[in-house]
Amino acid sequence: MTGSPNVVSLLSLKDKVAVVTGGARGLGFEMMCALAESGAQVACIDLLAETGAEAIAQIEKENKVKGSSWGCDVTNEEEVAMVFNQIAERHGGIDILVTAAGINKTCPAADYSAKDFRKIFDVNVTGTFLCAQAAAKYMMETGRRGSIITIASMSAHITNRPQPHAPYNATKAAVLQLTKSIACEWAPHGIRCTAISPGYFDTEMNRTILAQQGEEGVKMRETWETETPVGRLGTPHELKGVVVFLASDASSFCTGTEIVVDGGYTAW
């Protein structure tokens, strides 16, 4: 059969420019590494500007691609617009966006303050929207086809246990619906919008949450592992293939959908 592209070439991100919010550490860093390993230039957006700069220096050295680090509050519309313009100027364009910036707070819903509730929605939902909007505006203005990948969560579908964080779950459901909505609006412009929904991963953030709980944290981790069919937490590198697939032409007919990476948790 002739005319079918080679799958390896479809997965290549050579000559592409990828922006990753929350890329300084954790899952964002691993996904940023994957994009660089596949040939993309990478721009890290994170409030942890110094950590982001260190991450980019490591990626540039290991992958021989151009990188840049930007300190930015993703909830600030003016900052986001300015940084995306600067990234496009520095790198010559924007083709891919991964919105991994997010926060969480474990707290019973009855005790959750309005201030904390608003903050988590501002970062997880408004921040995702503003960055997706900035990337899409650039792509539309330049006629550049692109891929926007939001980071939702299995928490968009289930209620986690034993730890309570209802507002976080609500933000991830909002991110998922936002992704579907903008996918439909922006598809005519050649912009694909998809979501990755991770389950429990062995990240620094999760280890901190567990450590703060002391003995209860040990039991909590056991519950997470028991509730996951594969019997363990995910390791961050297990998102690498998924993000490259969604960023690349290998997923050219995928938009408005999500890939759940949860070790089977939501299959029960």
From TrEMBL:
**Keyword Oxidoreductase: yes or no?**
yes
Q: Which InterPro entries match?
A: NAD(P)-bd_dom_sf, Sc_DH/Rdtase_CS, SDR_fam
GO MF term set: mannitol 2-dehydrogenase (NADP+) activity; oxidoreductase activity, acting on NAD(P)H, oxygen as acceptor
Q: Name one GO biological process term.
A: carbohydrate metabolic process
The answer to whether the entry has keyword Magnesium is no
For this chain, the family text in UniProt reads: Belongs to the short-chain dehydrogenases/reductases (SDR) family.
The family database entries (NCBIfam families) matched by this protein are listed as: PRK07231.1
Name of this protein: NAD(P)-binding protein
- Lineage of producing organism: Eukaryota, Fungi, Fungi incertae sedis, Mucoromycota, Mucoromycotina
